[in-house]
Design brief:
Order of helices and strands of chain B: EEEEEEEEEEE
Strand content of chain A: over 45%
Number of strands of chain B: 11
Distance between the termini of chain A: 36 Å
Helix content of chain A: under 10%
Number of helices of chain A: 0
Number of helices of chain B: 0
Largest sheet of chain B: 6 strands, mixed
Shape of chain B: globular
Shape of chain A: globular
Structural class of chain B: mainly beta
Distance between the termini of chain B: 41 Å
Strand content of chain B: over 45%
Order of helices and strands of chain A: EEEEEEEEEEE
Radius of gyration of chain B: 14 Å
Largest interface: A-B, 26 and 25 residues
Radius of gyration of chain A: 13 Å
Oligomer: heterodimer
Structural class of chain A: mainly beta
């Protein structure tokens, strides 16, 4: 299996521009997670989808952030407009059946976003 | 609010040494605890998952223990190797509701010197 695939791996953009991050979860996994990692705050959950439906978006920092999962094999995280404080590494993870206490989450390699 | 702390933040040891990484959490009502490894520029890889009813898990040279009542977990690495150099993250899932939400510590950066 190819694992969780994220693109792009690196993104450099200017403040005010729209940024779209993409994720392909592991085939057959029902749940998908978006995380953000910074030195100051560590890893934080942004949003969680189960069967393509957003279940918990309480971690999305502002209305500038939005996420979609149009089908079981694709998700996007969009930032519009981007700001320098959005600079971070964004991870996507998927899991077969979270909530059972037995399943781990499988992480993608991350997208390093730099907003100038 | 669950908080996860990892001490030390960084650790450097000579090859072959046995070592212990520590993790503490403030709310003992957890579903499970996981240890992950993160290599530079890469995602996280799950090492061990301990369910709340378990006391420890072992995988090769790794042994993780869990003491829910005291809010502590340790990751023991035996006979460390340079290839073990990475950041190790501890994460817990809180029971009673959001049993999918991992709360992470900030990690321990381990360097094993040849």
């Amino acid at each position: 299996d190819a694992g969780v695939i994220q693109s792009p791996r690196h993104e450099v953009t200017e403040m005010g521009q729209e940024v779209t991050l993409r994720c392909k979860p592991i085939s057959g996994h029902n749940s998908l997670f978006w995380y953000r990692q910074t030195m100051m705050r560590g890893l934080e959950l942004l949003i969680y989808f189960n069967n393509n439906v957003p279940i918990d978006d309480s971690g999305m920092p502002e209305d500038r952030f939005s996420a979609k999962m149009p089908n079981a094999s694709f998700s996007t995280l969009k930032i519009q407009p981007s700001e320098p404080r959005d600079s971070a590494v964004y991870f996507c993870a998927s899991s077969p059946r979270p909530g059972t206490g037995t399943d781990t989450q499988y992480f993608g390699p991350g997208t390093r976003l730099t907003v100038l | 609010k669950q908080e996860v702390t990892q001490i030390p933040a960084a650790l450097s040891v000579p090859e072959g040494e046995n070592l212990v990484l520590n993790c503490s959490f403030t709310d003992s009502a957890i579903y499970n605890l996981q240890w992950f490894r993160q290599d530079p520029g890469k995602g996280l890889t799950s090492l061990l998952l301990i369910q709340s009813s378990q006391r420890e898990q072992t995988s090769g040279r790794l042994n993780a223990s869990l003491d829910k009542s005291s809010g502590r977990s340790t990751l023991y690495i035996a006979a460390s190797q340079p290839g073990d150099s990475a950041t190790y993250l501890c994460a817990v899932i809180r029971s009673g509701g959001s049993n999918y939400k991992l709360t992470f510590g900030k990690g321990t950066l381990l360097t094993v010197n040849p």
